[in-house]
Amino acid sequence: MKPRLKTELDFLAAVERGEVVTQATLSRRVGVAIGLINALVKRAMMKGYVKARSAPYKRYAYYLTPKGFAEKSRLVAEYLEVSLEFFREARRQYGELFVRARAQGVRRCVLAGGGELAEIAILAAREAEVELIAILDGETNRDRLHGLPVVRSLAEIDGWDALALTDQRRPQEIYAALLAETAGRLPGERILAPALLKIVSDDDFDLVEVAQA
Which of 25, 41, 106, 165 could covalently link to 193 via disulfide, CB atoms 3.0 to 4.6 Å apart? Predict the structure, then answer.
């Protein structure tokens, strides 16, 4: 997924409301820093996508121009296309991981991370006949996600023989934590991570050290 594409689309969608707002309000709605909102506003106005009308208390009513509506429609189409490509590639990668894991004796797996990748991994695991027993996620207050129970620690469950990384926000950090937590009880190859997460394993570090020696 392209973060910039989504940010630009969310920005234009927020402006489309035509409400009197501050840039701080737009920052909260889009979920980015005020500095970036300022840059987006300037760029959009320069390109003729957005116009502004001043209001009391140093606020503005931002609104889309016809050119802005056309640009938003174009971004929606591009976003949907990119999203579909991402979904297909992620499902393919998780599918291949689970098929290989199944061939190596994996039967019951835990997902590490409860975001949209978890939903994709669930579909792939079902096709590979790998049972998912829980989602490991210490940052949610929910007891269930995507139909699976949520645990905050691996100590809460037993009977699993692999972990599949489904955290998009901090994949390398989560991967390292899982390696440390399962050291001596789970082979490193039983921590499944698709290539799209760009995980650097201990073996990769060893190769780098050899190359630099």
Answer: 165
Q: CB of 115 within 8 A of CB of 87?
A: no
Q: CA nearest 190: which of 134, 110, 88?
A: 110
Q: What's the one-letter identity of residue 199?
A: I
* End-to-end C-alpha distance for the chain, whole angstroms: 37
**What's the mean per-residue pLDDT of the chain?**
85
pLDDT over 80 at 207, yes or no:
no
Closest by CA position to 154, among listed 135, 175, 174 = 135
Alpha-carbon torsion angle 143, 162, 117, 120, nearest 10? -100
pLDDT digits (tens, 9 = 90+) for 24-52: 888 888 888 888 988 999 999 999 999 88
Alpha carbon 200 to its chain centroid, in Å, reads 18
Residue 58, amino acid: K
Q: pLDDT value at position 205?
A: 36
Edge-to-edge order in the sheet of strand 59-64: 20-21, 59-64, 50-55
Q: What is the pTM of this model?
A: 0.70
Q: At which residue do the structure tokens 């016809």 appear?
A: 66
**Residue, of 113 and 61, whose pLDDT is higher:** 113
Paired tokens of 195? 């290539």
Task: Tell me which residue of 139, 132, 125, 193 sits closest to 165, measured CA to CA.
Answer: 193
Q: CA–CA separation, 95 vs 101, rounded Å?
A: 10
- Give the Å distances, CA to CA, from 150 to 113, 139, 142, 194, 211: 10, 10, 7, 22, 42
Q: Is the dihedral of CA 96, 102, 106, 109 positive or negative?
A: positive
